[in-house]
Design brief:
two-stranded antiparallel sheet; 5 helices; globular
């Protein structure tokens, strides 16, 4: 799908979203989970949705799954720091940064809501930090960037 942050491809396997890739889709398959993901992402980018109700099955380590749950618990329009998540999960901030970058389902598992202690931090989605800024502005968290 085309979005304000560029083309995205949603990958569905075994009735769950397993990845969101920053590339133009090569084909469009009919699948109820894919249809729901496209609709929910469209609503999100239109400002009509604040959370997602989709089956997610990222192919990640056990820690990354727990980390993904912590990301999903950050409310729309709010942020946490890498340090906040490090304390919450009793892990070093570097492990949190690595888990953020390894998250295969960006936006749906909102890694853009994680900031550095003294700035934005990085972003591994296409467009890098500029994409992170666009997503935070979409959620009304733009004032946090000043």
């Amino acid at each position: 799908m085309e979005t304000p942050v560029g083309p995205l491809t949603i990958v569905v396997e075994n009735d769950a979203v397993v990845a969101l890739e920053w590339v133009k889709p090569q084909r469009r398959d009919d699948h109820p989970v894919l249809d729901a993901a496209l609709e929910q992402l469209s609503d999100y980018f239109a400002g009509h949705r604040q959370d997602f109700d989709l089956p997610l099955a990222p192919q990640t380590s056990d820690f990354q799954k727990i980390f993904g749950q912590a990301l999903c618990a950050i409310p729309y329009g709010e942020t946490r720091t890498y340090g906040d998540l490090a304390k919450l999960l009793n892990r070093p901030a570097q492990a949190i940064g690595q888990a953020c970058g390894a998250n295969p389902i960006a936006i749906l598992i909102p890694r853009h809501r994680v900031l550095g202690a003294n700035g934005l931090g990085g972003y591994s989605g296409a467009g890098g930090v500029e994409t992170k800024i666009k997503l935070l502005q979409l959620e009304g968290a733009g004032s946090l960037l000043l």
